[in-house]
């Protein structure tokens, strides 16, 4: 429906120029046509057409001999505030140039239904329209509408229609960005595709299963994009002994004990620190426990302090290798000195010796008896020995 409505600009002495925030009301008064309310939803945008500009500055514009410049492009956008079969109220939300000195011929770009086709001649239908801006007095005018489309039999069934909207929530169900309309009053089975948003400080958990699909009649499909929060923190290196510093060190960020992301290499070039961005929660919305570890380096110990909120600091301490102490050789053990308790053994050895001596003496005496040449003195000496043995 594109009837003339309010005009604005220098050629309109009856009304101030239209501007964003103005409310326009259009009402069909003769009963020949009505708005197709099944295809118009409150809150959606509708174009209001301007058919021509009137300007005296023909040198600066492409104009015909009468100074009329035609702009097929729609320059005014509105939002539907209310809709009835014979009445629609719209709010002007934007205009290409609200200060231009020109005449706007306005009309809502909305679908209508012709109730009696016998009144249509050569695709033209005269319609009475009443228009009103804000609280000013309404104006009624007669317009010839161009009618396009087909006709329906009396028993025709209206095709079901539905809506599709996108929602952007965090894992707790809080809205992160305004809801967006994907399709309004779409025909049943019409294909749709919803689009995710880039939201600062968040990342998409997963793409919804219904991000693409088909419109369901008399139903509003909600495509819910769920995001999880991201946290940016710093990982830095501190040397307890600046004299003993390595050229670089490699650190690892662990999420619930499992390494995540790429290893972090710190050195003098990056001033021994790096910024890391990690999700605060896992896919199920549970908080992630983060920690930092460092590769092992000879003669260095590492201590880690920090958390996801404050960042992590790894401090290295140099531990020199201790000087080895010389080992003295173990002396050979000396022979043990017999103790008092060994007296019994000495006596035994002495008795054996005396016994052997006595046996030798007896053998000698026997040989003496056999020899007659032995002197008395020798005999007495041997006798003494024999007596000693007997004792």
Can you tell me about this structure?
This protein has helices at 343-370, 376-390, and strands at 23-28, 33-35, 45-50, 52-54, 68-70, 76-84, 87-95, 106-108, 112-114, 124-133, 139-146, 161-170, 175-187, 191-193, 202-206, 212-214, 220-239, 248-255, 258-259, 264-267, 273-279, 290-294, 300-307, 311-318. With 391 residues, the chain is mostly beta strands. The chain has four domains: 23-146, no CATH class; 161-228, Roll (Ubiquitin-like (UB roll)), CATH 3.10.20; 230-318, Collagen-binding surface protein Cna, B-type domain (Immunoglobulin-like, Sandwich), CATH 2.60.40.1140; 358-391, no CATH class. The strands form six sheets. Strands 8-3-6-7-1-10-11 form a seven-stranded antiparallel sheet, with no helix packed on it. α1 (343-370) runs antiparallel to α2 (376-390). The longest helix has 28 residues, at 343-370. It starts with 22 loop residues before the first strand and ends with a helix. Mean pLDDT is 77; it is low at 1-15, 51-74 and 100-106.
Write out key terms for the chains shown.
single chain; 391 residues; mainly beta; Ubiquitin-like (UB roll); Immunoglobulin-like; 4 domains; seven-stranded antiparallel β-sheet; seven-stranded mixed β-sheet; 2 helices; 11% helix
Shape: rod-shaped
Give a quick account of the main beta sheet: strands, pairing sense, barrel closure: 7 strands, antiparallel
Strand content: 35-45%
Strand order of the largest sheet: 8-3-6-7-1-10-11
Q: Overall mean pLDDT score? A: 77
Structurally, the number of domains stands at 4
Computed structural class? mainly beta
User: Topology as H/E string?
Assistant: EEEEEEEEEEEEEEEEEEEEEEEEHH
- Helix fraction bin: 10-25%
Unreliable spans are: 1-15, 51-74, 100-106
Radius of gyration: 57 Å
Number of helices: 2
Distance between the termini: 161 Å
């Amino acid at each position: 429906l594109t009837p003339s409505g309010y005009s604005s600009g220098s050629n309109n002495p009856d009304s101030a120029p239209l501007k964003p925030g103005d409310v326009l009301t259009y009402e069909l008064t003769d009963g020949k046509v009505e708005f197709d309310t099944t295809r118009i939803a409150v809150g959606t945008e509708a174009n209001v057409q301007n058919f021509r500009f009137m300007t005296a500055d023909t040198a600066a514009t492409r104009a015909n001999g009468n100074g009329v410049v035609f702009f097929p492009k729609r320059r005014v956008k509105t939002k539907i505030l209310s809709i009835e079969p014979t009445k629609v109220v719209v709010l002007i939300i934007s205009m290409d140039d609200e200060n231009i000195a020109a005449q706007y011929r306005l009309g809502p770009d909305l679908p209508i239904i012709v109730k009696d086709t016998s009144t249509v001649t050569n695709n033209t239908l005269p319609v009475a329209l009443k228009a009103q801006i804000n609280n000013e007095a309404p104006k009624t005018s007669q317009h010839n509408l161009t009618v396009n489309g087909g006709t329906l039999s009396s028993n025709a069934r209206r095709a079901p229609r539905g809506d599709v909207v996108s929602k952007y929530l965090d894992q707790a169900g809080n809205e992160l960005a305004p809801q967006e309309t994907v399709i309004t009053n779409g025909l049943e089975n019409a294909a749709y595709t919803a689009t995710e948003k880039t939201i600062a400080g968040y990342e998409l958990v997963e793409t919804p299963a219904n991000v693409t699909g088909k419109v369901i009649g008399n139903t509003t499909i909600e495509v819910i994009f769920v995001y999880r929060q991201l946290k940016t923190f710093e990982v830095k290196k501190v040397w307890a002994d600046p004299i003993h510093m390595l050229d670089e060190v490699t650190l690892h960020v662990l999420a619930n004990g499992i390494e995540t992301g790429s290893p972090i290499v710190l050195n003098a070039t990056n001033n021994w620190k790096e910024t890391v961005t990690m999700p605060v929660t896992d896919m199920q919305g549970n908080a992630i426990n983060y920690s930092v570890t460092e590769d092992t380096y000879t003669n260095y110990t590492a201590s880690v302090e920090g958390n996801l909120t404050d960042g992590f600091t790894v401090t290295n301490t140099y531990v020199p290798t201790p000087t080895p102490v010389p080992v003295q050789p173990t002396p050979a053990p000396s022979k043990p000195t017999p103790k008092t308790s060994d007296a019994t053994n000495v006596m035994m050895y002495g008795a054996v010796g005396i016994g052997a001596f006595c046996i030798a003496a007896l053998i000698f005496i026997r040989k003496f008896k056999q020899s007659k040449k032995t002197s008395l003195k020798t005999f007495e000496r041997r006798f003494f020995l024999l007596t000693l043995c007997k004792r």
